[in-house]
Q: What sequence folds into this?
């Protein structure tokens, strides 16, 4: 069964610091990859996604993620975080074919200190 | 935001009473999901549907049932609510034929069982 690992459960950064959140998955087939953001008290919203092509994808609010197939990774990055980026971030993987199950990671809580 | 409407958005109910949460979509997506999210367990899939009258269990289906009589509506029923079912419930939709099966979430239904 496929799994998604987000090793950082809670990250605290100061404003303007750079961010990198790790995401690794176990599925060996073809996948689609996603990052979602959940602001306090809100629902999960799509931040960015990767289907194919350029492994470096850019999303909303200055976020980007890089797909490294050999490492089964899809890490999320942002060069300079803001207080408004305080939220929980979820990585998700969709295996193509069949039912196309989508598996979510357990989430990383990001706290940005002004 | 995707055209997903959840109702009710907030509900307080008593232990032992039945509760039905409704999810309505205007996107004509084939798949619909019910998740629950809790601080100690994160996001967990309760049930999902891959078409009208086609449903299947997720990882935490005990105590819940679902029905999908129309493409646009997916109902989640708690047959006899318990305090352990106090949670926030998210409906979600996706379609493997569109956008790589990207999952879109509704705004959530906060349920308190007293």
A:
């Amino acid at each position: 069964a496929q799994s998604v690992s987000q090793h950082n459960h809670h990250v605290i950064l100061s404003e303007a610091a750079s961010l990198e959140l790790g995401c690794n998955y176990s599925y060996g087939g073809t996948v689609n990859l996603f990052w979602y953001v959940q602001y306090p008290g809100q629902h999960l919203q799509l931040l960015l996604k990767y289907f194919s092509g350029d492994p470096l994808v850019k999303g909303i609010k200055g976020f980007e993620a890089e797909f490294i197939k050999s490492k089964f990774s899809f890490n999320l990055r942002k060069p300079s975080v803001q207080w408004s980026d305080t939220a929980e971030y979820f990585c998700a993987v969709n295996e193509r074919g069949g039912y196309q199950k989508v598996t979510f990671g357990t989430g990383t809580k990001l706290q940005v200190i002004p | 935001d995707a055209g997903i409407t959840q109702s009710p958005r907030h509900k307080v109910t008593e232990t032992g009473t039945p509760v039905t949460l409704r999810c309505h979509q205007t996107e004509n997506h084939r798949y619909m999901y019910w998740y629950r999210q809790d601080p100690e367990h994160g996001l967990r899939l309760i049930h999902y549907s891959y078409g009208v009258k086609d449903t299947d269990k997720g990882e935490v289906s005990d105590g819940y049932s679902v029905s999908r009589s129309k493409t646009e509506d997916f109902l989640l029923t708690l047959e006899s609510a318990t305090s352990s079912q106090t949670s926030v419930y998210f409906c979600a939709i996706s379609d493997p034929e569109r956008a790589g099966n990207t999952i879109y979430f509704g705004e959530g239904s906060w349920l308190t069982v007293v």
User: Anything to note?
Assistant: Chain B touches chain A through 17 residues (CB under 8 Å). The radius of gyration of chain B is 13 Å.
